[in-house]
Write a structure and sequence with these properties.
alpha/beta, 5-stranded parallel beta sheet, 20 helices, Isoleucyl-tRNA Synthetase, Domain 1, globular, 4-stranded antiparallel beta sheet, Gyrase A, domain 2
């Protein structure tokens, strides 16, 4: 809110000083030290090349125009940077608008008609939902919530890889386990699947399907493969629902193949002279679109390489009327990004309309010890196990707390603590503490419906809270522009910290009823901000703790 006003003031000053419309957005940051004011801009450096003038002289010229604005107490120039000292009345006006708007102050109506499709998780249906996929779920779902809150039209999708080599290996692995359970010698194939979860599944299926004894190997492979894919996919979706993640669409690779979309992709690429044959395999000329080498799309044995049905799936996305696609992939997809964008471009779409976000690994630790995990070997920590251990609130908060492109060391011991060291507890406790103060004020007969005099809020820690609250819409826009949900929980921790500091120094309910109403109104706005922020990352905001 304040940043927006400063930005508009800068644009007006530039137009007045140099008779030009500022096409770039001024960079405005919070000042790191009080002596540099509340906000700072480097607009003079941004304009220096265009105007062929020294940044300091530009800053001084703009300062003389900006300082006449009654929004500021002072405007200074230090080393070419323009520093703004916002006056207290401006902060009172800003928080007044926030109070008047209620929760809508951080919400926007729909922006345009563009439809955004975000695909995330898309775990192979070869076992329970594991924690690496759960991180993608928390990131993707939070991004969807924030986009839609800020006025975009974003939709979520889960893609089921129910065809191809993994599914074949799953069926072969189940058959081997079935034979082992019946006393026969059988080995799980190389790169096949192991684990108690798979043994339990095969036991259950064999007990309920005695006709398996009369099937040949191929029939058992097919039967167990199809059964296991449906079972584990349903299990994953149920786990995600329990994790507060729901999808607008669920699309199956099998349906993409049945619609002959892979063949359409081959035809399109061949028409554009983008295919060639080498050692009986068919290669796509992906180097023509920025990839580091050409990629096979059909293997020498006639099977599709992974990229072909995936390209067909993205063709399907565009046919369904989406304008912009965002894929959230796991840490094993680093080399895949270029080739997918290359083939997306080659089949006729703007590569800028496909964005690929890569999230990093999750390492679980307990009392300082790393927990080993491997789905293929059967060493897994499922999402359900994690929720049973620490709860869905802690799981969701911790998964989005670290930057998307950073490895996450998930400390189970910390996540279970009911202390201020645990960040989710710290934020939720701030919300619950405010609820308790409001209840106390109501018991004391304070009329909270009466409009307060916000100008009575002038103490340093009151202004500190006001400054942090009014940043909230900008924080959400930063999440969107950087595709970085971690910005939001870090903001909620900062807001909670400022509230706790305020509460420790300032008595909210006093004999001065006017001041009490103003302070209660202020902390109710903190509470509302915390509740909205927590909801946008899928975390509850408790009234009592």
């Amino acid at each position: 809110m304040i940043k927006t006003f400063i930005s508009e003031s800068i644009k007006e000053a530039v137009k007045s000083a140099y008779n030009i419309e500022l096409e770039i957005e001024p960079t405005i940051t919070e000042s790191s030290e009080e002596k540099f004011g509340d906000y700072s801009t480097q607009i003079s450096f941004q304009l220096s090349k265009l105007l062929r003038k020294n940044p300091n002289s530009i800053a001084e010229y703009l300062k003389d125009i900006l300082k006449s604005n009654n929004y500021f107490d002072r405007v200074d120039v230090v080393g070419g940077y323009i520093n703004f000292f916002v006056n207290i009345n401006s902060y009172h006006r800003a928080i007044g608008k926030v109070i008047e708007a209620g929760e809508n102050y951080s919400k926007k109506r729909y922006i345009g008609n563009e439809k955004i499709l975000i695909e995330f998780v898309s775990s192979n249906p070869t076992g329970p939902m594991v924690i690496v996929n759960a991180r993608a779920a928390a990131i993707g779902d939070s991004l969807i919530r924030i986009l839609n809150w800020r006025g975009f039209r974003a939709f979520s999708e889960f893609y089921v890889n129910d065809s191809g080599n993994q599914v074949k290996l799953l069926g072969l692995s189940c058959n081997a386990i079935y034979k082992q359970l019946n006393g026969k010698n059988a080995e799980i194939p190389k790169n096949g699947y192991h684990g108690k979860y798979l043994v339990d599944f095969v036991k259950s299926v064999s007990e309920n399907n005695p006709d398996l004894e009369n099937m040949n190997d191929d029939e058992i492979d097919k039967f167990l493969g199809e059964k296991s894919v449906k079972y584990f996919h349903d299990l994953q979706i149920e786990s995600l629902k329990n994790f507060r993640v729901n999808f607008d669409y669920i699309i199956h690779e099998k349906s993409i193949r049945e619609e002959n979309l892979p063949e359409f992709i081959v035809k399109r690429l061949r028409e554009n002279n983008l295919l060639y044959t080498k050692e009986n395999a068919i290669f796509f000329k992906s180097t023509a679109f920025g990839d580091d080498k050409d990629r096979p799309i059909i293997k020498s044995n006639g099977e599709y390489a992974y990229i072909l049905p995936d390209a067909a799936y993205h063709e399907d996305k565009m046919r369904r009327g989406f304008d912009y696609l965002i894929d959230i992939f796991g840490p094993d997809h680093h080399g895949y990004k270029k080739r997918l964008k290359a083939i997306f471009h080659a089949i006729g779409y703007n590569p800028d309309h496909l964005e690929i976000i890569l999230h990093q690994m999750v390492n679980l630790t307990n009392e300082g010890n790393k927990i080993r995990m491997s789905k293929r070997k059967g060493y897994i920590v499922s999402l359900d196990d994690l929720i049973d251990d620490i709860g869905k609130d802690a799981a969701r908060f911790f998964f989005v707390l670290r930057k998307v492109n950073s490895h996450l060391d998930f400390d189970l011991e910390l996540a279970k603590q009911k202390t201020e060291e645990n960040p989710v507890y710290y934020v939720q406790y701030a919300h619950a503490r405010i609820s308790s103060i409001i209840r106390f004020a109501e018991e004391k007969g304070i009329n909270l419906a009466e409009k307060p005099d916000i100008s009575t809020l002038g103490k340093e820690k009151e202004l500190m809270l006001i400054k942090k609250i009014i940043q909230f819409p900008e924080i959400l826009d930063d999440v969107i522009s950087h595709r970085e949900p971690s910005i939001l929980p870090r903001y909620l921790i900062e807001l909670s910290s400022k509230f706790h500091s305020f509460y420790n120094d300032i008595r909210v309910v006093t004999d001065d009823k006017e001041l009490t109403r103003a302070r209660i109104t202020l902390i109710k706005t903190v509470k509302s901000t915390l509740k909205i922020g927590l909801d946008l990352i899928g975390v509850d905001a408790p009234e009592k703790m």
